[in-house]
Amino acid sequence: MKTSVTLNKIEVWVTNKSSHFQESRNIVAFLDLGEYGQNKQNQSIPEFGDTPGLSYPLSQFPNNNINGLYKEMTSTYSGIRDIATLNEVLKPLSMRDFIAGRDYEKTENARRLDSTEYTVNRQLGYISLNMALNADEVLAVAYQYTANGQTFQVGEFSTDGIEAPKTLILKLLKGTNLNPKFKNWDLMMKNIYNIHSQRLSNEEFKLDVLYRNDAAGTDLNYLPDGPLKEKNLLSEMNLDNMNSQHDPYPDGVFDFIDQITVDVQKGRIIFPVVQPFGSNLEKKFK
Fold it and tell me: 233-271 as b/e, with b when 16 or more CB fall inside 10 Å?
């Protein structure tokens, strides 16, 4: 089914490592906010199961009411609005395997990023920060969008009437525990590489994917044996699907397409597969 989605608004929050608190708020970010069914990390808490009586559009598109988590946090566990007592309020849920560092992260005086500090790809639906986050830093968002004529929201905006110092409820994208077993591991892009250059030019830029043949001491743009024997690695990573006239014929040259394979302004290479050197290559060897 074809879906028309328009992002209306987004706020991005990170751990505040600066001395500026003008755009800061206490936040609690939940991994399963806006998630449905098997997309949820925590399947063992009945109250956080799929809410009965939701219409089909709500079960299709991410929103605060797609499961019971948001309702529970704003009613039964509304004490989380006080960041000082948040851990104590949520402590009873540890008996049902709902734990800090995985299911939620709290951050005092988190900083709301200015729109110039990140980029939103509205076609592919992801955000890209202009700076790298440390392992102990949290990344969380609130966003509102329109899909098929209906408006949906995930998280709370700073303008939604929840006044400081009350805690904002957000969607957790990155926590302090980077674990491949956590659902947000798949939300973190592993296919964008910063080459620390700006204003890339198609005429002056060249990219190749090379395999180091230690036995021969040479670099090859193909693998010498196996299922990918003598196949151009650029093509195998979806970086060469057309010629210079954009005809659908690989020509052995990197397809330089702004916002698809490169970010011209920020100097980034974008592999159009989720894990170019992981699952993408793994499945080709099976």
Answer: bbbbbbbbbeeeeeeeeebebbbbbeeebbbbebbbbbb
Query: What is d(CA 175, CA 99) in angstroms, rounded to the nearest whole number?
Result: 12
- 186 phi and psi, to 5 degrees? -75, -15
pTM: 0.81
- Rounded to whole angstroms, the Cα distance separating 32 from 44 reads 12
| Parallel, antiparallel or unpaired: strands 192-194 and 168-174 | unpaired
Whether 263 and 201 have beta carbons less than 8 Å apart is answered as: no
Q: What is the pLDDT along the chain (286 residues), one digit of tens a residue?
A: 455 888 999 999 999 988 777 789 999 999 999 998 788 898 765 445 444 544 433 447 899 988 889 999 999 999 999 999 999 999 999 988 999 999 999 999 999 999 999 989 887 788 889 888 999 999 999 999 998 888 999 999 999 999 999 999 999 999 999 888 999 888 887 888 888 887 889 988 999 999 998 877 899 999 888 888 889 999 999 999 999 888 999 999 999 999 889 989 888 899 988 788 888 888 888 7
Secondary structure (DSSP) of 17-72: -SS--TTEEEEEEETTTT--GGG-S--S-GGGSBPTT--HHHHHS--TTSBSHHHH
Among residues 34, 188, 61, the alpha carbon closest in space to that of 126 is found at 188
In which residue are the tokens 């028309």 written?
A: 4
* DSSP percent split of the chain into helix, strand, coil, nearest 5: 20, 25, 55
Contact 110, 14 (CB under 8 A): yes
